[in-house]
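If you are new to this repository, start here. Below is one unmodified record pulled from the training split, so you can see the exact layout before writing a loader.
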Amino acid sequence: MPNYSYVAQKPDGQIVKGTYSAKDQNEVYNNLREQGYFPHEINEQGKVLSLSSLNTTKKAKKLKLKDLSVFCKQFSAILKAGIPVLKCLDLLKRQATDKNVELVLNGLYEDVQRGIPLSDAMKGQKNVFPQILISMIEAGEATGSLEYSFDRMSIHFEKEIKINQKLSKALIYPIMMVVVCILAVIVLLVAVVPKFATMFEEAGMKLPFSTQILIGAEKFLMNFWWLVGILTVGAVIGFMKFKDTQQGKRMIHSLYFKIPVIADLIQKTSAEKFTRTTATMLSAGVSLVNALDMVQRVIENTIVKEAVGKIKEDVIKGKGLSDAVSRFRFFPVMVPQMIEVGEESGSLDKMLENTANFYENEVDNQITVVTTLIEPAILVVLAVVVGFIVMSIVQPMFGMINTVS
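And here is the target side for that same chain:
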């Protein structure tokens, strides 16, 4: 077996060097970790091993909002009990039930054990942790209020989860209705219309224009179902790719603001996220410019994201936040007014948080309105489509009855 030289660190911080015979570099790394050492360097015949290739956290996936919320809440509670960060990570990784969370916590524990600050350890897993959490932890370490930062972020993620769940529930029923509508039309075209079409052809009668359209659609679907399938899949894939492009995002997000009821929902959702994120960052001692930079990263709507960038530029030039926000009409009028009150009273973070709570309730109400309006709209469309099919069948049947009479 080849020989490897290593440089490692003991739990007490002492640096040790030595050699190890193993079949590969991974075995050296794993054996050192089992002894409680953290490898800094492993050499084989003059070649330096990239330890990042051995670090198991490289396999970790992005944490879900629920996992982030639980992680922050537990970390805050343990820190408030006076337990140091390294011990917190040790406790959390021991009780982790999710494999991905366990991988993440193991990586953080190993990095902090080496003396790396928690925020820097989290930066090393930037594909796992959102930037807003890393920035909050960095601010908490700088101000000595790490437990407060974790507490704020747990609340932040809980609010985000709550809104996402409301939006998801609001979309489930309309999507189900659309699917039912499509399936009903397909069943009528495939199972019902062909029988009547055969009967009409045998009778040799002249069919109304609507019936001709219906029978033509049925024949096309039966003969070219494969083409319909290819076109449908192609359209879906094309749309999915288009919406991920910058031009596609901008076009779709601009369209949102032109649909009356949807525009109100997007407007209030953007206001809630803008004020919530800004308040969270400011409360942790982050500067307003850096807070706006973070808001720009977490906002999903391209139009709002560009607006936040312009607001940040205005603030850098010395303009007040309320004046900068008031330039954009898609922010509700209440937002700049509340910001102005917060600026004058010196409690901008508190006022932004109150505004965010207000619009959280407004989003809830708006989702109810959207759901209430979408349901009858889908039913009307379904009634029109099915009614057209039924009338196209019934109309020539009445003609046949009149002929027989």
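Two things worth knowing about this chain: Residues 3-54 form one domain. The chain has a mean pLDDT of 82.
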